Amino acid sequence: MYTFQALQVLLFLIPGFISSTILNALIVRNKEQSELAKIIEALISSMLIYTFYSLLIGQSPITLDQAANTITYSYNAASFLWLLVLSILLPTTIAFFITNDWHMRFVRWLKISRKTARASVWFDVFYDIKKHVIIDFENGRRVYGWPMYYSDDPEKPYIYLYQPYWVQENKFVSTGLVGLFITPEQKIEFIEFLET
């Protein structure tokens, strides 16, 4: 009996675990999920996937029956293909909304919340403001460039500046570099986002 129940739970959770794994690969999270949080996310994803499947197809993908000591199950291969497609489409759609902050932008427009969907303000600013920057370091040096790549964690401020120039006495001085990779050891004091 326990084996039958475990099989039911496992078959139910597989699409949710696929969906959760894809979502984790596509979005930035504030912190690592606990095992319980991963299982809850897989349960919610599975419920959504099976709901969409039932609405689209109108039947259950797996039939499990237990009579006496015999367990029989039947499945339709096309059902598993549909479940796989839904397991990919659901997290991809969710990741698109989270990355672009569309759902939270709508919630802010309704004045329900002021939060964003992204992991940090650092990530919000670099994602939304596509401008050249001047990075001011604690030692007084300044560098200008295009922030092509940046970390998602403000505690580890890694930034790759494309076509950097040193700023000295309000003049741009060529570094002669294609790019400059700034690490937390450089101690950024603040970052200026330029109008042009």
Any overview of this molecule?
This protein is an alpha+beta fold. It has two domains: 2-108, no CATH class; 129-193, SH3 type barrels. The chain is built from five helices and eight strands; from the N terminus they run H-H-E-E-H-H-H-E-E-E-E-E-E. The strands form two sheets. Strands 3, 4, 5, 6, 7 and 8 form a six-stranded antiparallel beta sheet that branches. A hairpin with a 2-residue loop joins strand 5 (159-168) and strand 6. The radius of gyration is 24 Å and the shape is elongated.
In total, how many beta strands?
Answer: 8
Percent in helix: 40-55%
Distance between the termini: 68 Å
**Approximately how much beta-strand content do the residues carry?**
25-35%
User: Overall 3D geometry?
Assistant: elongated
Mean pLDDT: 85
Structural class: alpha+beta
Helix count equals 5
Sketch the topology as an H/E string, one letter per element. Answer: HHEEHHHEEEEEE
**Total domain count:** 2
The largest pleated sheet is described as:
6 strands, antiparallel
Features:
196 residues, 6-stranded antiparallel beta sheet, alpha+beta, 8 strands, 5 helices, 2 domains, two-stranded antiparallel sheet, SH3 type barrels, 26% strand
Write a brief caption for the model.
This protein is α+β, with helices and mostly antiparallel strands. The chain contains 5 helices and 8 strands; from the N terminus they run H-H-E-E-H-H-H-E-E-E-E-E-E.
Layout: helices, strands, pairs:
Blueprint: H1 2-26, H2 35-57, E1 62-67, E2 70-75, H3 77-100, H4 102-109, H5 121-128, E3 133-137, E4 142-150, E5 159-168, E6 171-174, E7 179-182, E8 188-193
Antiparallel strand pairs: 1-2, 3-4, 3-8, 4-5, 5-6, 5-7
Helix pairs in contact: 1-2, 1-3, 2-3
